[in-house]
Design a protein that fits this description.
By secondary structure, the protein is mainly α. Helix content is 79%, strand content 0%.
Length: 151
């Protein structure tokens, strides 16, 4: 794996790659799932909801995720994949409280957000937070835009 470079353009480029890794499989999964279940996970009902999903949600959730990942990494002695799987499953359970399908759909994206944080936090927590938050916000923005275009 290529070493992480401590600069904003490299972090933004990595975030775009992370978005592709998170979004493409998620869109395929949502398409398949929607063939079998009534798919009403679109909880964006207003422009304020959209703004929250793209800004506030990623900022707050990623901060909580970073704290949780750092704690898990200490507890599990730096087992990155296991830590990211546990983080993703925890976020899936949390989101399932609002909608069971939403909880299932976000498992993969949160795994990727966790990987983004873990990969970039080797340079410092703020780098990890920036990479994961950027990835999360871009993922949500593209997913919301596609959901509105395809309805």
């Amino acid at each position: 794996m290529e070493p992480v470079k401590k600069n904003v353009p490299a972090m933004l480029q990595a975030s775009l790659i992370f978005v592709a890794w998170s979004l493409v499989p998620t869109l395929v999964f949502v398409f398949i799932l929607s063939q079998f279940v009534p798919f009403g996970i679109m909880i964006i009902k207003s422009k304020i909801d959209m703004l929250r999903a793209i800004t506030t949600g990623p900022l707050i959730e990623t901060a909580a995720m970073a704290f949780y990942l750092d704690s898990l990494r200490k507890l599990l002695k730096e087992r990155t994949i296991v830590t990211c799987v546990i983080s993703s499953a925890s976020w899936g359970l949390f989101h399932s409280l609002f909608n069971i399908y939403w909880g299932i759909v976000i498992l993969w994206p949160f795994f990727i957000f966790s990987i983004a944080y873990t990969r970039w936090s080797v340079l410092g927590r703020w780098w990890g937070y920036a990479a994961a938050t950027t990835t999360h916000a871009l993922h949500n923005a593209i997913a919301i835009a596609l959901a509105f275009l395809l309805r």
